[in-house]
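For consistency, the fold was encoded as tokens, as this record shows:
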Amino acid sequence: MIVAFSVTPLGVGEDVGEYVAEAVRMVRESGLPNRTDAMFTSIEGESWDEVMDVVRRAVAAVEARAPRVSLVLKADIRPGVTDGLTSKVETVERHLAGQ
């Protein structure tokens, strides 16, 4: 399963990078495969419990410092698939290259 999520602190001004870094730190410390880009952080795990625990900790890290938190989450639930973070991108790149 892959979960892409975005945690946004509200009520702290426009510069939120420091707060978001705390959320990303929780994801990276989890040991699960992950990728962060300008809009979302994606994590891959084998179960809802495993992945949602990381999301919960990331939200809690921001919530500890901000008066309000917004969470956007999207999940790709596909039992038995591993390394989806890499393989899905590789498939698109292969098509773009005309292979």
In short: The chain has a mean pLDDT of 94.
